[in-house]
């Protein structure tokens, strides 16, 4: 499988390089859908300039990325394009390897379950065969690399690409079972934007499963493993924060980065939900609504973990999708990362997914149109743009819930048979309540 | 999502959609057309009203006295224009200075990509002259513009005369809070584009102009005056601007309110409003007015010198004086009073006009239809495409056999579109060398040639297509093409509703019902039909040959508009609509 992957990487790199050299690169790096105040390349360049002058890059409200990024680009600013292309390549390769490894585990589990006769006889068509899953890793990598959102994000040199690379490496190390690396990459991802904190639960569940430690709150082995992971995670987080402090010489990156993400002072329109609300809000209620909005991201961790504790990898992808919808400054790069789903959708819900994908496609086309009408022609106003933002986010939420429903349905069929019968023998249908 | 996740209801819905798909599509199309036609019916429209409070309640008596003197100035202007053989720059500068304005000039030049046969120009050089009346009382942060074009021959002399007369009168008033810029532009739209670019320090069209020496503040509103006779019987308001952009409805409301107050007949699209809306002829009159507005908006060209202001977020309109055979005539003094009243109201503005609608259709000057009422007509047409897409998706059942098989027709169609966009202008020299045609004809004929060549492609590209001969191959292509058309028409309708609606009206039936073997129409036919319809509506029907010449000139004007002012109709049609339609043409010839 190395040859198709290499071909795919070559094609992706060529497309990105061609776009870098064209006049579209400047246009794309200004679009608010692609860059946010957190991830814009213009701000990184500003921060670098301030650093060269000996002033803290966080003075003035310009730069909001982490110190490690600025020191990374201190050395790599001339090779910035190559860095971002490399980040995309690393993400794709990491996803490829992790999906391949995960498939192997899925087959092993399936084999044991078949031998133990745990599947009802009529759902054999739902069992995945190696042949049909052979191209899934390549498809996942292709879907990420050739996704227009990813390409736009890379050409705009948005640091979201680096964030995605770290998260992909975290996924890879978790699936391979390497506890230390998983903790380190997760702490790097959390260090850059706070929201990957929610992936802790998913990682823990997976690693516990892999080490055959049952998730029982009364057992010592469970708490011992949790303590180990927490120690590694928090330890590496403190090390990285401390390193930033020593490199920068002051603590003022904490309010500029984390304070900025959590308190949302910048209300430039983007594809998220925060800006319009907070532009309309009275000062008196701002803190309350801020808490409500931010809790929304973290809140889904607990119910999702309880429901999906047998399927932690799916939980990781669910969490990524939730983060990309509800975070304070989303961009299309985050959306691209959240679209990675390697399950084949069952035919029952493919109509839903088709409708929702059409809506997402239409919204992506309408974003620049309504922006133009609002800002340049002056004929529309912010309500038009926010309507499309709302529709886009609703479509994403529906997509996530459709995938979740399809997944649950498949699991239910696997344990209870494809053709469901009520107790008296008549046919039953599965309804989502 | 109870409806879509409950399997029983879902199955019922899906079977309904697949069984009744064609009838539902036909019903939607009829409903869309009927809705659109019903928009002109008066009970379905709203009366216009002033939304901006700042322009509401002044009780002013307009006192402009010097109409005859203005006409005399106009005659002087005409004489000097004949003597100078163009714009009489020195005389204008002297006259404006004597009226107490700060006068500046701007020179500009532009070489058109190919000669413009309608206006007979190729290498355009000219001068704009403008005088600024500084506001006596307020800080000079805002400005208003009154412009009159300097046209060749005997046109618009009276307009310049009235402009200069008003300038003298306004100079003696003390209540102006905004600077007033009196602009006389040469070569109508080209000169206006040069002036606006110079004023706003942008250069989007590659024109050469000298920088403006004097400037006012940010322009709040602009009026352009076209007056070619000493007396008029009615005043016509022209609203359509570049790319179908319209000024804020409050400007039209202002004009209408003043016409009512002063007692001047006012028209829109040259058609006087009728009172008998419940009779068939009254209704068809309103429909004609609305259709004229739709056709003018869809063409994407500015229909008066005001059209270029809109792009800079400046509300502007053109007032044309019409002299037809009516008993009651209005003289220049009344026109001057009307303009004085309008400018005094505009003077009161605290912020840019934004309260009223930006998207509307006007079946008459006192009634309008807003976007909330006319968009459902388009929505019904777009719904047809969506229903078709759903039907195809259900038929295809399994995930599409290969999106890659669709890639070849997509790429070839878009390359043809790029060829249609770039080749006509680039190849005009080669065409002129080899064929006995003028440059304009060469450009138009090249465009038609590329268009027709694109039609011949499916016969030849079959060998390159994978998945040919399969039943599902064309269905996948049709699914992609239908979704592409739906998104494209949606975006177009938001920017320029009329263009989106006319394209939808003609392309949606084709798109929905095309299968291998069914015949179809082309966008070129749409354009031809629209040209004939436009002439009919203006009550100047043409013979077929004249119509064909008009059609060719429309194509050349479209290409010129894009090169000169940045109109989007030509690139949209060449780069997006034409490739999309070629995909359907491919399906037609699928073997």
From TrEMBL, chain A:
Record localization: Endoplasmic reticulum membrane
Membrane topology: Multi-pass membrane protein
Pathway the protein contributes to: Glycolipid biosynthesis; glycosylphosphatidylinositol-anchor biosynthesis
Residues in the signal sequence: 1-17
Name of one Pfam family that matches: PIG-U
Keywords recorded for this protein, A-Z: Endoplasmic reticulum, GPI-anchor biosynthesis, Membrane, Signal, Transmembrane, Transmembrane helix
Transmembrane segments: 68-99, 143-172, 184-208, 229-251, 257-278, 285-306, 312-330, 351-377, 383-405
GO cellular component: GPI-anchor transamidase complex
InterPro entries, A to Z: PIG-U
Keyword Membrane set for record: yes
GO BP annotation list: attachment of GPI anchor to protein; GPI anchor biosynthetic process
Membership in a protein family: Belongs to the PIGU family.
Protein's name according to its UniProt entry: Phosphatidylinositol glycan anchor biosynthesis, class U
Phylogenetic classification of the source organism: Eukaryota, Metazoa, Chordata, Craniata, Vertebrata
TrEMBL record, chain B:
Transmembrane annotation, as ranges: 20-41, 371-390, 402-422, 442-458, 479-504, 510-534, 541-560, 572-590
Entry annotated with the keyword Glycoprotein: yes
Protein's pathway: Glycolipid biosynthesis; glycosylphosphatidylinositol-anchor biosynthesis
One Pfam family cited in the UniProt record for this chain: Gaa1
Keyword set, alphabetical order: Disulfide bond, Endoplasmic reticulum, Glycoprotein, GPI-anchor biosynthesis, Membrane, Transmembrane, Transmembrane helix
InterPro entries assigned to the protein according to its UniProt record, in alphabetical order: Gaa1
Subcellular location: Endoplasmic reticulum membrane
GO CC, one annotated term: GPI-anchor transamidase complex
Quaternary structure, from the entry: Heteropentamer. Part of the GPI-anchor transamidase complex, consisting of PIGK, PIGT, PIGS, PIGU and GAA1. Interacts with PIGK.
Protein name, as recorded: GPI-anchor transamidase component GPAA1
Source organism per UniProt: Cyclopterus lumpus (Lumpsucker)
Lineage: Eukaryota, Metazoa, Chordata, Craniata, Vertebrata
Gene: gpaa1
């Amino acid at each position: 499988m190395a040859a198709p992957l290499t071909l795919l990487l070559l094609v992706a790199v060529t497309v990105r390089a061609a776009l870098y050299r064209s006049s579209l690169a400047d246009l794309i790096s200004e679009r608010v859908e692609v860059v946010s105040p957190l991830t814009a390349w213009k701000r990184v360049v500003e921060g670098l300039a301030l650093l060269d002058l000996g002033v803290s890059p966080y003075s003035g409200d310009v730069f909001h990325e982490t110190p490690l990024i600025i020191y990374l680009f201190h050395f790599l600013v001339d090779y910035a394009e190559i860095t971002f292309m490399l980040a995309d390549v690393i993400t794709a390769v990491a996803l490829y390897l992790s999906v391949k490894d995960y498939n192997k585990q899925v087959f092993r589990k399936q084999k044991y379950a078949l031998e133990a006769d745990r599947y009802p006889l009529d759902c054999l068509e739902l069992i995945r065969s190696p042949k049909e899953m052979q191209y899934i890793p390549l498809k996942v990598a292709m879907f990420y690399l050739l996704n227009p959102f990813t390409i736009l994000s890379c050409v705009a040199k948005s640091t979201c690409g680096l964030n995605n690379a770290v998260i992909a490496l975290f996924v890879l190390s978790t699936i391979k079972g390497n506890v230390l690396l998983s903790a380190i990459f997760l702490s790097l991802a959390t260090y850059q934007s706070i929201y990957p904190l929610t992936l802790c639960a998913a990682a823990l569940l997976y690693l516990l499963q892999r080490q055959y430690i049952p998730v029982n709150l009364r057992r010592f082995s469970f708490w011992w493993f949790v303590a180990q992971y927490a120690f590694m995670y928090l330890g590496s987080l403190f090390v990285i924060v401390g390193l930033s402090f020593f490199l920068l010489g002051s603590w003022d990156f904490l309010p500029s980065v984390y304070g900025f993400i959590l308190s949302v002072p910048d209300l430039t329109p983007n594809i998220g939900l925060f800006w319009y609300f907070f532009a309309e809000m009275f000062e008196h209620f701002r803190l309350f609504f801020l808490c409500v909005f931010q809790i929304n991201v973290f809140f889904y961790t607990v119910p999702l973990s309880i429901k999906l504790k047998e399927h932690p990898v799916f939980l990781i992808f669910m969490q990524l999708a939730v983060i990309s919808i509800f975070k304070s400054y989303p961009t299309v790069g985050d959306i691209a990362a959240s679209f990675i789903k390697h399950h084949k959708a069952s035919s029952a819900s493919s109509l839903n997914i088709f409708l929702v994908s059409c809506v997402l496609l239409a919204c992506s086309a309408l974003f620049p149109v309504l922006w133009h009408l609002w800002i340049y022609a002056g004929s529309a106003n912010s309500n038009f743009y926010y309507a499309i933002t709302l529709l886009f986010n609703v479509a994403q939420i529906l997509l996530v819930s459709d995938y979740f429903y399809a997944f649950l349905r498949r699991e239910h069929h696997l344990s209870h048979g494809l053709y469901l019968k009520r107790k008296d023998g008549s046919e039953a249908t599965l309804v989502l309540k | 999502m109870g409806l879509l996740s409950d399997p029983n209801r879902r199955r019922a819905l899906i079977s309904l959609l697949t069984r009744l798909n064609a009838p539902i599509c036909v019903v939607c199309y009829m409903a869309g057309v009927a809705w659109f036609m019903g928009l002109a019916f008066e009970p379905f429209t709203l009366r216009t009203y002033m939304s901006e409070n700042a322009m509401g309640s002044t009780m002013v008596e307009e006192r402009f006295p010097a109409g005859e003197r203005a006409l005399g100035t106009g005659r002087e202007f005409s004489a000097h224009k004949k003597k100078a053989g163009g714009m009489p720059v020195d005389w204008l500068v002297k006259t404006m200075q004597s009226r107490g304005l700060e006068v500046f000039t701007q020179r500009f030049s532009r070489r058109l990509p190919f000669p413009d046969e309608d206006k007979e120009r190729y290498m355009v050089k000219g001068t704009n002259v403008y005088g600024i009346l500084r506001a006596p009382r307020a800080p000079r942060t805002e400005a208003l513009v009154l412009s009159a074009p300097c046209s060749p021959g005997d046109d618009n002399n009276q307009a310049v005369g009235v402009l200069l007369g008003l300038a003298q009168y306004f100079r003696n008033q003390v209540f102006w809070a905004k600077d007033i810029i009196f602009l006389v532009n040469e070569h109508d739209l080209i000169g206006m584009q040069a002036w606006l670019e110079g004023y706003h320090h942008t250069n989007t069209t590659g024109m050469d102009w000298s920088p403006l020496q004097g400037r006012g503040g940010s322009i709040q509103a602009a009026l352009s005056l076209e007056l070619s006779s000493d007396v008029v019987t009615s005043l016509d308001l022209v609203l359509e601007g570049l790319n179908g952009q319209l000024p804020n409805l409050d400007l039209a409301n202002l004009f209408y309110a003043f016409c009512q107050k002063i007692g001047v007949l006012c028209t829109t699209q040259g058609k006087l409003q009728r009172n008998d809306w419940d009779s068939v002829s009254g209704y068809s009159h309103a429909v004609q007015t609305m259709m004229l507005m739709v056709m003018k908006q869809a063409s994407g060209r500015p229909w008066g010198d005001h059209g270029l202001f809109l792009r800079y977020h400046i509300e502007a309109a053109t007032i044309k004086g019409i002299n037809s055979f009516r008993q009651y005539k209005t003289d220049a003094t009344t026109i001057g009073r009307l303009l004085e009243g309008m400018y005094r109201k505009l003077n009161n503005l605290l912020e840019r006009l934004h309260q009223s609608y930006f998207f509307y259709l006007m079946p008459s000057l006192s009634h309008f239809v807003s976007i909330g009422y006319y968009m459902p007509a388009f929505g019904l047409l777009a719904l047809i495409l969506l229903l078709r897409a759903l039907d195809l998706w259900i038929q295809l059942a399994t995930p599409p056999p290969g999106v890659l098989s669709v890639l070849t027709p997509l790429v070839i169609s878009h390359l043809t579109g790029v060829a249609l966009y770039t080749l006509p202008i680039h190849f005009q020299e080669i065409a002129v060398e080899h064929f006995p045609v003028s440059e304009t004809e060469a450009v138009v004929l090249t465009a038609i040639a590329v268009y027709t060549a694109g039609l011949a492609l499916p016969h030849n590209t079959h060998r390159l297509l994978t998945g040919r001969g399969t039943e599902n191959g064309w269905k996948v292509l049709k699914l992609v093409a239908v979704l592409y058309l739906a998104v494209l028409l949606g975006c177009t309708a938001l920017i320029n509703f009329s263009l989106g609606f006319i394209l939808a009206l003609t392309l949606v039936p084709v798109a929905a019902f095309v299968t291998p073997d069914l015949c179809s129409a082309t966008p070129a036919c749409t354009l031809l039909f629209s040209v004939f319809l436009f002439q009919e509506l203006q009550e100047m029907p043409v013979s077929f040959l004249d119509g064909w010449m008009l059609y060719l000139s429309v194509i050349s004007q479209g290409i010129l508009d894009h090169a000169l002012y940045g109109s989007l109709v030509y690139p949209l049609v060449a780069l997006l609509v034409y490739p999309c339609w070629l995909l359907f043409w491919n399906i037609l010839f699928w073997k």
